[in-house]
Amino acid sequence: MGSHELPNIVINNIRFQLEGYNPPDPSGKRSLKMRSFLVDGTSYELYLYQSESSLGLWRLGCWDRGMFYKGKLDYVQQTFIHFILQEFINKNISKIDGLHFKNEHLELSDKIKTDYKEFLDYSFPFCYTKLAAYESTRKHYIPIHINDPSRIVEIKPFSDFEKDETKRCGFWKVSPEPYLKTLSDEFSKIYRLDENSIHFLYTETYEYSTTEFRNTIKFNIISTYFVCRLISRNKQPDLYLYYMIYNIADHTGIDVDGLLIDKYYFPLFLTPNIKITPFGTFQHYVLSAGYICKLFEHMKQAEKFGRGISREIKYIGYMYNDLFPFNEIKTL
Q: What is the pLDDT of residue 27?
C-alpha cells in the first residue's frame, strides 16, 4: 500500500494519515501510528493507544518509565483524541491491519540509539529520556504538547474546586460522589443547557476481557456519543460537553445486576473550542476538578470506593449519571 493509498482525513486544513497498527502487546495495549500534515509542510509523527479504562477511546501516547505519560494536570483530557478523528480511526483501522511498525525514536540522539540499540524495540517514543549516563538533549514534542499551558482554560465553578488536588480524577482517597453532586449543583447555577444543541456523533462497541483464576470476565459495552452546548449565565465562554450514553450488550463472569444499568450517561470532554490540533487532540480543555474522569478506575486509585469488576478495575461511572446536564437531558 503506497502512502497515497493510506487512509487519511482532512480536519481544519490538517491531514491525518494512518500509517501503522500493532495488535495488543502482552499488557493488552493496541498501538497506532499516524502522521499529520500541515499546509506549511510541517509534519508530525503521532503515536496513539487504546485506553481500556475509557472503553477503547484513543489517546496520544509516549513511554515514561514503563507507563504511558498522562500529563501534569487534567490527564484524562490532556491526551484525549478529537472525536472526529476517533470515529475515522475506528472505521479505517482494519485497512492497515498488516502494517506493523517500530518506533524510529526521533527523540533520541544517534549515539544513544547506537549504544542502546537492544533496548529500543518499542512502539512508542520515550517521553523524557534518560538511559544510563546519557540523556537526550531534545525533549520529545508529544509531552511538550500534552503539557502546553495554552491549552488549559480555567472556568468557574471548576477553577474553584480544582484548587484541592485531592479532588481531581485519579487522586480521590474516598468516594467522590457527594463532592461531584456539589460541583454539579454549582455548575448548573453558572451554565444552562441549550436543549436544541444536542447532536449525535456515532456509536461504537468495545469489548473488555480478562482472565482471573481461570475465570473469564468479559463484557461488551455499546457507547453512543453526543455533544451539547452549555450557555454561560455570567459572560464566561460557552462550553461544549462531549458525553456518551452506554449499555451492556452481553457479559460473562460478572454480576451485572445493580452494577451497570442500561442507558447510563457519562461526561467525556469539556471545552470552549472544538478545533483540532496537529497532534489530533482538542485545542483547548477545561480543568474540570474531577467532573471529567474515567468510566472505570484502576483498583489502586479506587480502592475504597466504586464497584468491583475485576482485580484490576472498578466501575465508578454510576457516580456521574445524574450530574448536570444529564439530569435535564433525561427529561427532554
A: 61
Mean pLDDT of 66-95: 91
Domain spans, the chain: 3-147, 151-329
CA distance linking residue 73 with residue 96, whole number of Å? 34
Residue 274: closest CA among 226, 247, 240: 240
Report DSSP letters for 133-174, one per residue. Answer: TEE-SS--HHHHHHT-GGGEE--TTHHHHTTSGGGSTT--SS
pLDDT interval class at 240 (50, 70, 90)? very high
Cell of 149: 499551558
249-274 per-residue burial string, b: 16 or more CB within 10 A, e: under 16:
eebeebeeeeebeeebbbbbbbbbeb
pLDDT in tens, 251-301: 777 766 656 667 899 999 999 999 999 999 999 999 999 999 999 888 888
Check residues 126 and 213 and name the one with the higher pLDDT: 126
Q: Which one-letter amino acid corresponds to residue 306?
A: G
> Do 239 and 191 meet the contact criterion of CB atoms below 8 Å apart?
yes
**pTM, two decimal places:** 0.92
Nearest to 57 by CA among 319, 294, 318, 250: 294
Strands 285-286 and 152-153 come out as parallel
66: left (phi over 0), alpha (psi -120 to 50) or beta: left
Structure confidence at residue 105 as a pLDDT band (50, 70, 90): confident
b (16+ CB within 10 A) / e for 108-120: beeebeeeeeeee
Q: Which three cell numbers stand for residue 224?
A: 453512543
The grid cell for 27 is 499488557
**Residue 217 has what pLDDT?**
79
Q: How far apart are CA 185 and CA 166, in angstroms?
A: 20
Identity of residue 13:
N
Using CA atoms, how far residue 273 sits from 119, 145, 153, 232, 277, in Å, is 41, 17, 10, 14, 11
Q: What is the mean pLDDT of the chain?
A: 88
